[in-house]
Amino acid sequence: MAMRDLVTGGAACAVPGSSSSSNPFGALANAILGSTMKAQDLKGLPESRVTVPTASLDLRPEDQFATIPGSEYENQLYQHADSQNSEFLRGFRSASHGSFEDAWGEVHRPPILPRAGVREIEGHFTEFEQIYDGGVNSNIHQIWDGPPQRVLSSYLHYFVNSDRDRTGFRPTALPALGLSESDKRCIRDRSCIMARHIFADKNEQYINEQVSSFLHCLDIDNNHLIRGPMQGPYAELEEYWNNSQTVLRPTVPHPADSWISEFSQQRASGDPEAWAHSFEKQHGANGWVSEFGQEQAQLLSAGQLGGSNLSSIAAMEQTRMLAHTLAQNNDPKFQNSKFLQFVSKMSRGELIVDDNQIKPATETISGDWANEFHMQYDKKPLEEHFSGELFHGANTWVDEFSKQHRQEEVDDQWVTEFSKLHVQDWAEEFGQQVAEGTFGESTTDRWAEAYDDYLDEQLAAKPKSSASSGVYVFSDMNPYVGHANPLKVGQELFRKGLLSEAVLALEAEVLKNPDNAEGWRLLGITHAENDDDQQAIASMMRAQEVDPTNLEVLLALGVSYTNELEQAEALRYLYKWLQNHPKYKPLASPEQSTSLFHADIARLFNEAAQMSPEDADVHIVLGVMYNVSREYDKAIQSFETALKLKPHDYSLWNKLGATQANSVHSEDAILAYQQALDLKPNYVRAWANMGISYANQGLYEESVRYYVRALAMNPKADNAWQYLKISLRFASRTDMLEACDSRNLDLLQKEFPL
Amino acid sequence: MAGSGSSLKSAALLEQMKSHLTTDVGKELVKKTDLVYQLNIATKQKIGVDDEIYVVDLKVGKVTQGAYKGKPDASFSLKDDDFLAIVTEKMNPQITFIRGSMKIKGSLSASQKFTPDIFPKPSKL
Predict the structure, then answer these.
(1) Are the beta carbons of B98 and A374 separated by less than 8 Å?
(2) How far apart are the C-alpha atoms of A275 and A266, rounded to whole Å?
(3) Which residues in chain B have Cβ-Cβ distances shorter than 8 Å to A650?
(4) Residue A372: what pLDDT?
(5) Which of A6, A225, A696, B80 would suit a FRET pair with A270, their CA atoms being 20 to 30 Å apart?
(6) Which Gene3D superfamilies does the protein's record reference (chain B) (predicted)?
(7) Chain A contacts of B111, Cβ < 8 Å?
C-alpha cells in the first residue's frame, strides 16, 4: 500500500463537479508538489511545537507510512483529488535521484529524530528506490484535448517539466478551458510561485516570460486579475504547507533540486520549528489559519452550493484524515502542536449548507477553531475570512460557532462558556430567524458594511492609535510650511474661526519651532474646538513639555482627558493646575498629585474658590472636576458661577451645555450651546454637541442637520461621522448612508440645510 | 446623580444611560426592548478577572450595579475600553465579538438588540 500508492496517486477519483483549483486541497497538493519553498528567514517561534514525529521511522510498511504525518492524508488526498495531482506526482519522480537520497537521509538523521537508526534509513531507501525506479519510466505525454481538467493538468504538467527538458516552455494553443475567475487567479498565483521555483537558476526576466506565455495560453491576464490581499488565496497556505511538508512529510519527492537544498539548509539551521516560525513571521500569526478560512470562504462563495459543498466535504474529509494521522503520533509535542489542533478543528468545523437548511455536521466540532482565531491572530485576515462567509450564509458562521465544544485545554473561557450554554438553541434561533427572513438582506449587508468600515478603521486607526499614545500626527501637504511667520497667520485664522486652516498654519509653526509653547498650546485649543481630543491631547502634551507651568495648557489637558473619560489623567492635570497657580500653590502639597483622591482635590479647589471668589478659572476647573466625578449638579453650579464672571467665554458655555447634556438635561444644553455659537459661529465642537443633544432626545432629523454643519467645518471629525450615521438610520434616511460613507459633504449639505 | 466610586470609563456611560432612561426617549426604548442585559466590564486587562457588573434593565428602565437577580436575557463581558469604543461607534459589536474581545451569553436575538444606538452619546466639554 503506502508508499507506492502514495507516489502513484492511488485510485484517483476526482471530486465531481469541481475543477482542480476550487478543490483547495487539490490545489494544495499541486502547490506542495509544484511550488517553491521560498528561502525564508528561519527564526524561532515561541508557540509552535511541531516536530517531525519520530514514530515515522517505524519500518513496517503498512503502518510505517500510515504514521508518517500527512501521508495518509496524501493518500486520501489523491483519492479525492483530480487526476491532475497524480500526474504531477508521476512527473516528479524524475527528480534528481541522487540528491534526493541525500535529503532523504538527512531527513531521517537529524537531531530532531533521535530515534532514527541507520538500519531504518536504509530500509527506507530500499523501499523508495523500488518505487522510484518503477515509476521513472512512465511516459509523460501531453494531452491537448479532452476534458478540460485533463487538458489543464497536462498543460500545467508540461509547464513544470519545461525546465527539466531545458527546452524552454513553448506556447501552445489550448482549447477553452472554462476557467473561472478564481481559478484563473489561483493558477496565475501558483504558477508564478512554481515558475520561480522551477526556474530558480534562471533570471527574473526569464521567469516572467515563461509565466506570461504560460498564462497567456490559458487566457489568463496576469495584470487583470486582482491579486488577493496576500497574493492569492492559496499562496500563504501553500507556503505553510510546503514548510510543513518538508518537515513532516519528507516522503514526497520533489521535482527540483532546490527543495532539497533548501531542506538541507533548513536542517542546518537546526530548528525544527523554524519553518513555522518563518511562516508566522512572514505572514503574521494568522496567516495560514486565515488563509485556510479564506479558502473555505471562497469555497462557499464560489459557484453553486452543490459543487462547493462537495469540494468542501472533500476538503473536510482530507483534513480529518490528516488530523487523524497526525493524532496517531504519540509524540506529545506533536500532539500539542497548534497545527494539529487547528487541523483537527478545521476538519470538524465544516458545516453543510443544504439549500436553506442548516445541517449540522455529523461530527462534533472542537471549540477551538474560533478559539484559535481569536487567540492568536490579527484582526484583518479574520475579517477577510468572515466577509467571504457572510456573503453566503451568515448561518454557516453561527452554526460553526455553535457547534463547538471543548476537547482540549484552552486558556480562554469564551469557548467554555459557549459550550456550556444551550448553544444549540442559539443557533437554532438564528437559523430560524434567517429562515423567517428576519435578518435577510439588511443584516448581512449591515455586517458586510460594518466589516468594510472596520477594515477602513483599522487602516485609519494606525495613525490614530499613535495619537492616543500622545504622538502628534501632522497633516500632509501643509501649504503653510515655509511661511515666514506661521504663528501669526495661525492666530489670525483662529480668530476668524477658520479652525482647520488654523491647524495647518500652527502645525507649520511648530514644525519650524518645536519649542514654541504658544504654538503648541494654540494648536491644542484649536483641535479641541475642532472636536478632536486626540490631537488636542497630543499638542497639549508637547506644550506642557516646553512649558510645564502654563495654566491654560494644564486646564485644557484636564478637559480633554475628561472628554476621553480618562479620569486619572484628568485629575492629575487639574491638580497640576492648582499646584502651578501662583495664588493657590500653597494649598497643594507637591508630592501628592498621583495619589490624591478626587474628594481631596475637590476640597482644595473649594478652598481656593473661597480664597478668591472672583476668580472664574477656579470655578471652571471645579466644574470640570465635578464632571469627572459625575457630580453634574455641582458641576453645573460651578460653571454657572464662572459664567456670571465671564459671560463671553464661548468655551465656558459649551462646557455648561455639555455638562447639562451629560446629565440628560438636553433642552437646557441646547440653549447653552446656542449661546456658545452666538459668540463663536464656527465652534465645531458646539455644533457637534448640538447634534448629540438632539439625537439623545430622539430628534434625529434635527440632529442630522447639526452634524452635517459640524462636518462641513471640519470634515475630519470622525466621531461626528459615526453619529451622523446613527442618526440617519434612526431618521430613516438610509438613502443618505452612502453619501455618508463616501463623505460626500456637498450632497449632505444640500439635503440637510440648517 | 452622585458620582459612583467606579473609575471605569464605562461607568460614566452607564450613568448617562441611567439618566437617559428617565427621559421620554429612554422610556420609549424600554417599551420597545423589554429585555434585561448584564454587562461584565473587566477592570483589569483580562476579562473574567475582577469584573464590574452592571445591569441595564430595559424592562423596568434602570441601570444598576451588581449582578442581576435572575437570568438576564443576554450578558456581555468585555473590557472597559472596548465598551467605550462600541458605544461611541468606534468599533462594531459583531467584530468585537468575533475577535473574542467580547463574550456573549444568552439569547442571540437579545444580544443583537443591544446596539450602540441605544446608548446616549457623551457630549464634549
Answers:
(1) yes
(2) 8
(3) none
(4) 46
(5) A6
(6) SCP2 sterol-binding domain
(7) none
The per-residue pLDDT for A336 is 53
At A273-301, the pLDDT tens digits run 444 444 444 444 444 444 544 454 454 44
Q: Read off the pLDDT of each residue in A196-201 and give the average, rounded to a whole number.
A: 67
From the candidate CATH numbers 1.10.1060.10, 3.30.1050.10, 3.30.43.10, 3.30.70.120, the one assigned to the domain spanning B2-106: 3.30.1050.10
Domains in chain A (CATH in brackets) are 24-136 (no CATH), 149-167+176-229+256-354 (no CATH), 365-432+445-468 (no CATH), 472-548 (1.25.40.10), 563-625+632-643 (1.25.40), 647-754 (1.25.40.10)
More confident residue, A464 or A633: A633
Q: How far apart are CA A49 and CA A337, in angstroms?
A: 5
Share of chain A above pLDDT 70, in %: 39
Report which secondary-structure segment, H or E, holds B78. Answer: strand B74-79
Element (H, E) at A58: none
Decide if A30 contacts A85 (C-beta within 8 A): yes
> What is the CB neighbour count within 10 angstroms for residue A681?
12
**Cα dihedral sign for A575, A578, A579, A585?**
negative
DSSP result, A636-698: HHHHHHHHHH-TT-HHHHHHHHHHHHHTT-HHHHHHHHHHHHHH-TT-HHHHHHHHHHHHHTT
Neighbouring C-beta atoms of residue A68, cutoff 10 Å: 28
Distance in angstroms (rounded) separating the CA atoms of residues A66 and A210? 38
In DSSP terms, which residues pair with B65 in a beta bridge? B54
Helix, strand, coil percent values for chain B (each to nearest 5): 35, 25, 40
**CB B95 to CB A451 under 8 A?**
yes
Give the lowest-confidence range in A418-427, A591-600, A697-706, A717-726: A418-427
Distance in angstroms (rounded) separating the CA atoms of residues A562 and A659 = 11
Per the DSSP assignment, residues forming a β-bridge with B41 are B52, B78
DSSP A482: T
DSSP element (H, E) containing A62: helix A61-67
| CB-based contacts of A32, cutoff 8 Å, min separation 6 | A238, A241, A242, A245, A252
The residue that leads in pLDDT, A153 or A43, is: A153
Residue A232 or residue A482, greater confidence = A482
A684-696 and A650-662 helices, crossing angle to 10°: 20
Segment among A55-69, A90-104, A431-445, A630-644 with least mean pLDDT: A55-69
Q: Which residues of B touch A624 (CB under 8 A)?
A: 125
Summarised one tens digit per residue, pLDDT across range A502-559 is 999 999 999 999 999 999 999 999 999 999 999 999 999 999 999 999 999 999 999 9
Tell me how far the alpha carbon of residue A455 is from its chain's centroid.
8
Report the alpha-carbon distance of residue B15 to residue A213 in Å, rounded. 67
pTM beyond 0.90, yes or no: no
- Kindly give, in sequence order, each residue whose CB lies less than 8 Å from that of residue A483, ignoring residues fewer than 6 positions away: A489, A505, A508
Lowest mean pLDDT, pick from A55-69, A616-630, B20-34 = A55-69
* CA angle (A570, A572, A578) in 5-degree steps: 110
Give the containing element (helix H, strand E) for B37: strand B36-42
Query: Cell 455659537 belongs to which residue?
Result: A677
pLDDT tens track for A203-253: 667 767 776 776 776 666 655 544 444 444 444 545 555 555 554 444 444
Nearest CA in chain A to B116: A726
Taking the domains of chain B in order of start, what are their residue ranges?
2-106
CA distance to partner chain B, nearest, from residue A556 (Å)? 10
